[in-house]
């Protein structure tokens, strides 16, 4: 493990956090946009009625914890001949080719690495789907490491998945480092999970900011939806960030 002390930012005379962990879907990648593209293809390929688009998007926004549940409902609703596993498998194979990482995000990650930060991805999901996204978008080249629940057999918010990613960076978890993600308190929470292992956190708000912030999450910094420059600049500023 590296015993090097955290770098110091000459602009502020303060210690700079060395490590930033990122969620994948709807944090580094615009999964919602890719899902809408998949819905359009799915409806066209099967010759479904146009109102099927709105139905599928609404179902996708309903927050089902796993796509197997989603595809079971899709199969029953449209009377499809394929099995749930066949539908789910085709989705996983197609999604890496529909999702994209915006140029601003890649540029921001490059700036972070150039400033001396170490970057890693910590994500839940099946191995083929998540690994395919990371490889197809070239995020694999933009970070030092990644830990995928489908490969490791452990999911966020459990500490072990965070530790695996950090170990692959030849580092240890530090209270001054960051976790950035879009899930606040769900079982796949990025923020609750990050706070649980002692990290500073930035929540990517996709329009779901609660009226009363949950006490169990602790403190976090809020970043606007799909404003990578905002959240990356917060990481760059390190300890100067003020938490709400």
What is the topological layout?
Layout lengths: L7 E2 L4 E2 L3 E4 L8 H16 L4 H10 L6 H12 L5 H11 L8 H12 L3 E6 L3 H10 L8 E4 H4 L6 H10 L9 E4 L9 H6 L3 E6 L15 E4 L3 H10 L7
Parallel strand pairs: 3-4, 3-6, 4-5, 6-7, 7-8
Antiparallel strand pairs: 1-2
Helix pairs in contact: 1-2, 3-4, 5-10
Give me a quick take on this structure:
By secondary structure, the protein is of the alpha/beta class. The protein is 41% helix and 13% strand.
Using brief descriptors, characterize the structure shown.
alpha/beta, 10 helices, disordered N terminus, six-stranded parallel β-sheet, single chain
Mean pLDDT rating: 82
Number of strands: 8
Global morphology? elongated
**How are helices and strands ordered from N to C?**
EEEHHHHHEHEHHEHEEH
Characterization of this structure:
The longest helix has 16 residues. Helix content is 41%, strand content 13%. The strands form two sheets. A six-stranded parallel beta sheet has the order 5-4-3-6-7-8, with helices on both faces. A two-stranded antiparallel ribbon has the order 1-2. The N terminus and C terminus are likely disordered. With 244 residues, it is α/β, with parallel strands linked by helices. The two termini are 33 Å apart.
């Amino acid at each position: 493990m590296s015993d090097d002390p955290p770098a110091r930012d000459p602009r502020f005379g303060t210690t700079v956090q060395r490590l930033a962990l990122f969620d994948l879907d709807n944090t580094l990648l615009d999964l919602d946009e890719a899902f809408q593209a998949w819905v359009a293809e799915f409806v066209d390929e099967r010759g479904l009625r146009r109102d099927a688009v709105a139905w599928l998007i609404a179902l996708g926004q309903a927050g089902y914890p796993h796509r197997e549940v989603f595809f079971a409902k899709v199969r029953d609703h449209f009377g499809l001949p394929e099995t749930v596993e066949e539908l789910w498998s085709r989705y996983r194979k197609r999604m890496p080719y529909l999702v994209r990482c915006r140029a601003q995000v890649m540029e921001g990650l490059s700036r972070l690495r150039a400033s001396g930060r170490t970057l890693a991805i910590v994500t839940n999901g099946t191995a083929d789907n998540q690994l395919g996204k990371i490889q197809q978008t070239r995020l694999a080249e933009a970070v030092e490491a990644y830990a995928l629940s489908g490969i490791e057999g452990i999911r966020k918010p459990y500490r072990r998945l965070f530790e695996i990613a950090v170990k692959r960076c030849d580092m240890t978890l530090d209270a001054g480092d960051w976790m950035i993600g879009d899930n606040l308190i769900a079982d796949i929470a990025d923020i609750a999970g990050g706070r649980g292992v002692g990290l500073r956190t930035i929540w990517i708000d996709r329009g779901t900011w609660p009226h009363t912030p949950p006490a169990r999450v602790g403190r976090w910094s809020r970043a606007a939806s799909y404003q990578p420059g905002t959240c990356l600049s917060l990481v760059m500023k390190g300890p100067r960030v003020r938490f709400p």
